[in-house]
What does this fold into?
Amino acid sequence: MRLDKYISNATDLSRTDAKRLIKHGEVTIDDKMVINPAQKVNADQMVAIEGSTINMAQSRYFMMNKPAGIVSVTKDNNNPTAIGLMYEHRSQELQIAGRLDIDTTGLLLITDDGQWNHRLTSPRSDCAKIYQVGLTEPIGSHYQASLAEGVMLEGEKHRCLPAHMEQIDEHHLTLSIAEGKYHQVKRMFAALGNHVASLHRFQVGDIVLDADLEPGEYRPLTDLEIAAIQ
It folds into this structure.
């Protein structure tokens, strides 16, 4: 990687600022001054600015407790975004791994690791998405069997994959689905003649929303949580 890009990726400095430091002789590679911003840097080399060693930035992984009213995109001209709630260097490089509707709350996973994101969101992924669902009408006695069989959504050619529900009370249940079609949960219950009043995702695969996170807060994933997405 070019030296100026390496410094920019590993620090809060822009490429322009990195070039200026390099040309002023303030950067060393393996204790040797370098003044060419295009100098290539290998992973095993030590880069320092004014004698302080810097390290290449590692991939980043976060969970957020998404509040209602926040959109799961990087940029939006009309609504506040999940990325906008984060105070992270190079936030423009972060990606939403499995989006939530603007009025859906709960577990949102965010990363700059494209391969990890793909493993999580691929149609072949076996990562179950588990939701708490509130319905406007009482839960029908046939819902569990219909969901297990696979609901046919309007405009789709094939049924949804089998889903599993556990009833909490007359209007509330937990639902586990294995795919992520557009507005899937809402459309599933619409197909059953009901309407979703509240929707909260609290688990994806083995990653469970941290109960200590208030709406809008986020934290880095642990090594075990990162490794859970295979």
Observations:
- DSSP finds six helices and 13 strands in the chain.
- The mean pLDDT is 92.
- The helical segments are 3-10, 15-23, 114-121, 143-149, 184-191, 223-227.
